[in-house]
Design goal:
mainly beta, four-stranded antiparallel sheet, three-stranded mixed sheet, about 25% strand
Length: about 120
């Protein structure tokens, strides 16, 4: 319901918690982290630098498309990348927390032809 004079949503005007902005950062974005050993989370909406993901109040440092991964921890080249409690790849270059994790910095451990690395 909208207040016809002000154009303000009635729920917001009544003090309902409809704001998705955090105090210190950008918009809160939902993500999936299923296992405490995960080193990445999957964002469930497009995220921009400064947006916050996970219950850890974690800031994204660059744009990350829907369905892609964000690093929770630092990774050195050769470090395992873990998602859903499983190793899904290996870092090919340094990855810092909040960075997008994809083919430009992670070699997939899944779907590889035998002998291909």
């Amino acid at each position: 319901m909208t207040d016809s004079e002000t154009g303000v949503e009635a729920d917001a005007a009544a003090g309902a918690d409809t704001d998705t902005e955090t105090e210190a950062t950008g918009t809160r974005r939902p993500s999936v982290e299923l296992d405490e050993s995960d080193t990445v989370v999957t964002v469930l909406e497009d995220a921009e630098a400064g947006d916050v993901v996970t219950d850890r109040e974690f800031e994204v440092t660059e744009a990350v498309p829907f369905g892609h991964k964000v690093a929770l921890t630092s990774h050195d080249p050769g470090d395992e990348v873990r998602k859903y409690g499983e190793v899904i790849g290996v870092a090919t270059e340094p990855i810092e927390p909040g960075e997008w994790v994809h083919t430009h910095n992670c070699d997939s451990a899944r779907g590889k032809a035998e002998g291909r690395r």
